[in-house]
Design goal:
- An eight-stranded mixed sheet has the order 2-1-3-4-6-5-7-8, with helices on both faces.
- The protein has twelve helices and eight strands.
- It has one domain: Thiamin diphosphate (ThDP)-binding fold, Pyr/PP domains (Rossmann fold).
- The protein starts with 24 loop residues before the first helix and ends in an 8-residue tail after the last helix.
- The relative contact order is 0.13.
- The protein is of the alpha/beta class.
- It is 37% helix and 13% strand.
- Helix 3 packs parallel to helix 5.
Amino acid sequence: MTQQQITIPDAEFLRPGHLACPGCGAALAMRYALKALGPRTILVIPACCWSVIDGPMPYSATLVPLYHAAFETAASTATGVKAGLVMLGDNETNVVAWAGDGGTFDIGLQALSGAAERNEDIIYFCYDNEAYMNTGIQRSSATPYGAWTTTTPKESLKREQKKNIMEILAAHRIPYFATATVAFPEDFIRKVRKAMTMEGFRFIHVLSPCPPGWKSEPEDSIKLSRLAVESRIFPLIEVESGVDYHLTYEPSGIPIREYCSLQDRFQYLSEEELDLLQQSVEREWRRLVHNVSGESHSSGERQASGSGGAVRI
């Protein structure tokens, strides 16, 4: 898993003065992504935090063209932009859909699946802050087990596992799927550059700490991104053609408590529930290792992990 050293480019395509909250992972994720993508890029952004972060019309925080789309249409709008460029003879511009977890895991899943099934030639980024943060911190299907949101208050915390978007996209056999975090910028930029060398539908899943929604300190966002990787709750991986799984970083496997302790959204979990969350992380890690090694799952492990629908830990 040794990777070629990547130097973070000096060029900046994100202006200072954007409207992100202090410590926003999504702002730093956009900065890194644009450094890798370069100036020949068009962004398509649906309703999400980033539609606010970019600034009010006629202003924009990005130095590349940006098209605002409806909540559920990131993938389909990006598909149309790409088709228009091709008709004009432009096959070089990167067309990027940039959406949150609500517009990807939930509201935009139909457009996402359609574009993935057709293998549309776009790059789709999901900056995942694990809830509908822009509209008031409501639960999404990307919200992890036991997390507080305004629609899963302490009396009724979320009891379902986070939707596995990796396996959904792998089932579409897309050319490239990868995970990334702002705590590993060289890994992030390498994956974006690799995606740029490919054709077809490419998907990059970026964990994006949200201090207001995670009830964490703004200065802890990078630390939380690293702890998410080291605890194995968010491994750094690549999946090519839906079948070739690769780890790009070997996590240390620290206890999940270290990650949860810096987020008050998990403050209502009991010790028993934290143990259950730890067991879930370990089970999903074993599934991933099986995929990386090319081994098949046992029927018992498939049953333990669930076979669809809301899976309770």
